[in-house]
């Protein structure tokens, strides 16, 4: 059986979620009540029988390391393979590489030592539930050099404006990679590549002074190499702005969307925290809301997401909002179209109201 190893490349991902990425990288941003965005990338890999996963990270990764630990939540705390968190290594005086090619160059031992024949490279901003074994089979059948994964979206949103788009011939061979805002074939920042071919492209990129592996090593060689397109048909969320984060979070309140992303046969794993079940007072009223463990609800909550340990005081009203871990909302407070980062406190009687297209965001550990 052909094996794959995984690389989650965070190097070129910008921290674009405003207050939510003041203190953490985007991959560590909480999502869907109890997860982090990176949980989906790692879970997809382990569900696809990938046993070695490397994470390339450059900035604000303390929160990410605290969350991932040794990879136990994904059964990656193993003797062979496992989870490798790989910050850049600045100790090689001969290193002339730049950009994310520094990561590929400085951590080339991960690629050399893995028993895998193929490498699956992914980012963290595309949320989905995908089986990479299906992608690998399509890759081998097409005899491609690289297989890129894309989603043909029904409707284009602002987050798609700067995503790469794909054109194909009749055999799903990629003929163009561009930023056409009208094209609906959205590249999901995921691709499968032969390990030896990956090593060759890394060496060529460094020799030519390149700085972005995908753009300079794959996209730029489009006329000369065979790039195959694999269409993903499941639920998909591209999160590269506060507005996209807010809208896709709200989409999970639709039972069909939630069930398709969190499948029983391919679960999404996260760091385990043992907490008591949520507790609702007789005066509480909760509708269409995701409520995590450890919450204490004594007010009205509607169309919202409450992370672990949130406290909603008596008479408080929370609508269309995302309230992260251990936030406290005082009695009589009113929140609508609001995102509270972890450990925020809203005083008694305060009112915070944002707009559906521009939610009010409060940074971590703030008090109002």
TrEMBL record:
Pfam family, one: Hexapep_GlmU
Superkingdom: Bacteria
Gene: glgD
Listed name of the protein: Glucose-1-phosphate adenylyltransferase subunit GlgD
The entry's keywords: Glycogen biosynthesis, Nucleotidyltransferase, Transferase
Domain Nucleotidyl transferase: 19-155
Coiled-coil spans in chain: none
SUPFAM superfamilies associated with the record: Nucleotide-diphospho-sugar transferases, Trimeric LpxA-like enzymes
Domain Glucose-1-phosphate adenylyltransferase/Bifunctional protein GlmU-like C-terminal hexapeptide span(s) in chain numbering: 283-351
Entry EC number(s): 2.7.7.27
Family membership noted in the UniProt record: Belongs to the bacterial/plant glucose-1-phosphate adenylyltransferase family.
Molecular function in Gene Ontology: glucose-1-phosphate adenylyltransferase activity
Native organism: Halobacillus naozhouensis
Leading EC class: transferase
């Amino acid at each position: 059986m052909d094996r794959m190893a995984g690389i989650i490349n965070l190097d070129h991902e910008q921290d674009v979620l405003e207050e939510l990425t003041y203190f953490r990288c985007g991959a560590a941003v909480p999502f869907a009540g109890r997860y982090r965005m990176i949980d989906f990338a790692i879970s997809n890999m382990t569900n696809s029988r990938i046993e070695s996963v490397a994470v390339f990270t450059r900035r604000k990764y303390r929160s990410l390391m605290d969350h991932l630990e040794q990879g136990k939540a994904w059964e990656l705390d193993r003797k062979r393979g496992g989870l490798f968190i790989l910050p850049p290594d600045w100790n090689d005086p001969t290193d002339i590489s730049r950009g994310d090619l520094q990561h590929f160059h400085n951590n080339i031992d991960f690629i050399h030592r893995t028993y895998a024949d193929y490498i699956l490279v992914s980012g963290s901003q595309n949320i989905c539930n995908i089986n990479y074994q299906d992608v690998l089979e399509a890759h081998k059948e097409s005899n491609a050099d690289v297989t890129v994964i894309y989603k043909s979206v029904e409707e284009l949103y602002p987050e798609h404006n700067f995503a790469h788009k794909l054109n194909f011939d009749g055999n799903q061979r990629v003929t163009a990679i561009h930023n056409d805002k009208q094209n609906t074939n959205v590249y999901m920042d995921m691709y499968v590549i032969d390990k030896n071919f990956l090593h060759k492209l890394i060496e060529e990129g460094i020799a030519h002074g390149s700085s972005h592996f995908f753009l300079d090593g794959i996209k730029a060689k489009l006329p000369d190499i065979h790039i195959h397109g694999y269409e993903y048909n499941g639920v998909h969320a591209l999160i590269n702005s506060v507005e996209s984060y807010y809208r896709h979070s709200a989409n999970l309140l639709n039972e069909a969307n939630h069930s398709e992303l969190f499948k029983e046969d391919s679960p999404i794993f996260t760091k385990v925290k043992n907490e008591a079940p949520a507790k609702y007072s007789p005066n509480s009223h909760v509708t269409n809301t995701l409520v995590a463990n450890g919450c204490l609800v004594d007010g009205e909550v509607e169309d919202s997401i409450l992370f672990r340990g949130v406290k909603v005081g008596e008479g408080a009203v929370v609508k269309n909002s995302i309230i992260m871990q251990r936030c406290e909302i005082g009695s009589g407070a009113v929140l609508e179209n609001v995102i509270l980062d972890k450990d925020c406190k809203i005083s008694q009687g305060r009112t915070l109201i944002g707009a559906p297209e521009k939610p009010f965001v409060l940074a971590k550990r703030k008090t109002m």
